[in-house]
């Protein structure tokens, strides 16, 4: 079932890309190294598109395979480190009285002497 849904998604996205780019089935079939009639059968779901054919189509379209699958969205890999804490530096120029108020707000009353050293 999942593979069938994925196949339908790829076919629908290919149809959209072909229409939006004003391409012919013959041209996209050439990218896949298959005839226009064979590519037509791919688009109507009677013939399966191979991974290699999808890769060749993506290359011909100047896209990545994943971007055909996620079309019109473009897949962006999330960095694993994105979930880690970040170190942030904030620098402010304040007059002495404002500086003390801010430090008290951020670090509390007890830490202000340590921070002013």
Task: Note the main attributes of this structure.
single chain; 117 residues; mainly alpha; 434 Repressor (Amino-terminal Domain); 2 domains
Describe, in plain words, how this protein is organized in 3D.
The protein has helices at 2-20, 25-32, 36-43, 51-61, 65-69, 96-107, 112-115. With 117 residues, the protein is mostly helical. It folds into 2 domains: 2-69, 434 Repressor (Amino-terminal Domain) (Orthogonal Bundle); 87-115, no CATH class. It starts with a helix and ends with a helix.
For the record, the CATH architecture of the largest domain stands as Orthogonal Bundle
The CATH superfamily of the largest domain is identified as lambda repressor-like DNA-binding domains
Run of helices and strands: HHHHHHH
Q: Work out the number of β strands.
A: 0
Task: Supply the CATH class of the largest domain.
Answer: Mainly Alpha
Number of helices: 7
Structural class: mainly alpha
- What is the fold-level CATH name, i.e. the topology of the largest domain? 434 Repressor (Amino-terminal Domain)
Share of β-strand residues? under 5%
The Rg value, from CA coordinates, equals: 28 Å
Q: Uncertain spans, ≥5 residues at pLDDT below 50?
A: none
> What shape does the CA trace take?
rod-shaped
Q: Give a quick account of the main beta sheet: strands, pairing sense, barrel closure.
A: none
Average pLDDT metric:
85
